[in-house]
Fold:
Amino acid sequence: MCDDHCGINVYTENGKIVDIDGSNHYWNKGRLCVKGRAGVDFFNNENRILKPLKKVDGKFVEIELEQALDEIAAKMLEIKAKDGARALSIWKGEAVGFAQQEEIARRFIHAIGSPNYFSNDSQCFVGRWIGYSLMAGSWMAQPDFANSKCIVTWGANPPNAHPNMTQYIMEAKQKGAKLVCIDSRLTNIARQAHVFAQVKPGTDGALAHGIIRLLIEKDMIDKDFVENYTVGFEQLKEYSAKFTEEFVCQETGVTAEILHQIVDAIGSGGNQVINYVGNGLEHHENGINNIRAVACIDALVGGFDQKGGNFMPEGFGQQELTLYHELPLMHLDPIGADKFPVLYEYRQECHTMTAMDQILSEEPYPLKSMIIIGANPVSTNPNSAKVAAAMEKLELLVVRELVMSDTAELADYVLPAASYLERAEMHCHGMHQVVTLTNRLTTIPDVQDEYQFLHDIAHRLGAGEYFPWENEDALNEWLVEPTGVTIETLKANPEGYQYKPLKYKKWEERAKNGEKAFKTRTGKVEIYSEYLESLGYEGLPVYKSPDYIENAEVEFPFAMITGARKLVYYHSRNKEFKRFRTAVPNGEVEMHPADAAALGVKSGDRVKVTSKIGSIEIEVSVRHENEIMPGIIQITHGWKESNVNMITHDDKFDPIDGFPLMKAVKVNIQKI
Ligand SMILES: Nc1nc2c(c(=O)[nH]1)N[C@H]1C(S)=C(S)[C@@H](COP(=O)(O)OP(=O)(O)OC[C@H]3O[C@@H](n4cnc5c(=O)[nH]c(N)nc54)[C@H](O)[C@@H]3O)O[C@H]1N2
Ligand SMILES: Nc1nc2c(c(=O)[nH]1)N[C@H]1C(S)=C(S)[C@@H](COP(=O)(O)OP(=O)(O)OC[C@H]3O[C@@H](n4cnc5c(=O)[nH]c(N)nc54)[C@H](O)[C@@H]3O)O[C@H]1N2
Ligand SMILES: [Mo]
Structure:
């Protein structure tokens, strides 16, 4: 149900789910967080959509599935005839964002002749993926925490966001690893840290360069690795030398004492150092270069693909479902590919913010139809008012959902979708190199999985040749063909099947064999990127001060961060779980007591928060003085009322990956 993918046991009685607990899966070893268990509430909830809905005169009416499929396909054919196939699009969300569901969506849209695939990843993890891929050829999402000697979290809070992953960090700590947390707030992970650096939002790059300068000065780097496996060290050394203690401390708000403690913790970890970057560094105008500056630390200590370092897993090797080789469709101008070429080259992501403008302006070409699976962009994308206007302007909006959402309300058709218990799909856990096939517990009439739905539409649109498999089971048989692992083996190993033993330092072996050591253009770790330079960007991960610091404005005296995860909610999801709603009843703006005093407000009072995009009204939560810095506020997204994305930016981006400014937003606050 979430991106931690814990193994679960589901207990049923008379066809009803009565309990869910953690299975003895490789990854979670019996552990499970409250969300996993509360799945029981979800499956026994009366709000689940179980019949196709069609909007007639502004109201939803139930219709038969075949009628819905026929009407949707007919409308798509009509739009295609009028405006071309590229006027059709698909958007996958975080709820189906893993492995084959995403690839099926990508396959579908290319199969019907359009390059316009969108997803929540225009603002999730792709910043980290690109940052680390530019540097070392891949992103290390699941480092080897348990064997590490020093773990540094940057803008990540695993106890809330990846509860099971936290256990690996705690295990390392018990074995003597140092834990350093870098966050603008005193988080649950920071409370466990040996060293906590409270940074001003968006200034991580300055801190990273300060750390780099000191690591070099104190001779705490892996010289062999730097000399043989990296390019650009001398330029970095010269650049980082400008990040004096005085500048770094002033810019980031971190004291010199803490700065030195971080350097000593990293420097004494050898190669067994992990820099784990979270979503907190992504939603900034300088996000990619801050992430690249952090990745330079991994490069200097030689931590890539080491035991206890940023382990680089090998893939399972299943068939490729996407059609980017067969049908790249670049001549049809995928939306955003010209504006953010790095985003498109590295991830084949069309840019969702640009798409909203394009729907509204119809320039340079019209986008008329969208199928949304497992996403709620009206709540989760920046500038929600614009997103809603764009969704309303579409000639055809189809939303595949489990329950009604802000986005589904605007749809022409809402189709009931299979949940995680009603799909059979493969999940890989890189940290252990295991693959698991989920067990489809049941099928419900009229409730299709994503494969079946896209199969049925593709066949109606004349693209059936790309969907030859009758159902997802047949697809799975095909997917595993080249791996040598059978579906029977996967079924016999519900607790995970290790497809390859773990191997560290694969780069060393590749170099010995005369192959590229790293999957970058030069085959080395690229501290300096000639590729970025060739596109007109800086080759080094240069630091740029965030706008709220560089261009401070008296009318907008606060810097707002958003999206810090609450344990029980998942973006806009889980609000219908009564036990969660009593625990966390509504959205809040977290602030420092001195700011609250100056505004004359206390916890529970309501304030108006205004950015250059708009305003929202929201309840105040005054935090302890060491939890958040004065002048900084935090609001978590996902609430229908007090939706913070009404005031986040869809017009300010990181120039390299096109991520929107959703953290470090300039705002003003008034008491109501
Ligand atoms: N319960 C729950 N779990 C989730 C999700 C959910 O919605 N709910 N969402 C899932 C998804 S899609 C994702 S992407 C992951 C995200 O998981 P994480 O990457 O761990 O994200 P957060 O828990 O939001 O932690 C981000 C932290 O960054 C801090 N921060 C903000 N700006 C800055 C900055 O400029 N610098 C630094 N150093 N820190 C900053 C915030 O204070 C916050 O504590 O979580 C996943 N897990
Ligand atoms: N301000 C701000 N906004 C943010 C962020 C932030 O930090 N700050 N974080 C961003 C990030 S990292 C992400 S990943 C995005 C996530 O953005 P979205 O992808 O829009 O995530 P959800 O709100 O979880 O929407 C998932 C929807 O899918 C439905 N659903 C659940 N399970 C299934 C299923 O099995 N099948 C189908 N078809 N539907 C299902 C749910 O009911 C829900 O409506 O939000 C982003 N938005
Ligand atoms: Mo995300």
